[in-house]
Amino acid sequence: MPGWMRHAPRWVVVLVCVIAALLLLVGSASHTVDLVRHGLRPYDWAPGWLNLYWSSLALFDTLAAVLLLLGRRRGVDLACAVVATDTAANWYAVHALQHSHLAAEPGLQRLTAFAALVLGTAPFVRARLAG
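Below the sequence we write its predicted structure tokens.
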């Protein structure tokens, strides 16, 4: 890893971790509300595997957020896995299932921007965190 990645200012690392954790907790709350209100299949229009994946994010979003707030590299790794798979799942749902597009879906726009933040800053943040 290039040395300059290990020299990201500490305040930037903390700020990115806090922002990512807060946004992951927003996602967790959303998935939890869907689970409580509608059970494991909150989206009638989506296949069962996709409903199960989105429902599992109530746990995985929370876990990633907690690990980030604790300053753990595993939090960055899990956050990257969550945003990459969630973004892919949402793009699939929007395009293949709902026959819509990015411009018509503000939620997908926000999720894509969040994924860019997490994935783009991950190498810098991860280099400064403990195991």
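The CA atoms of residues 37 and 97 lie 23 Å apart.
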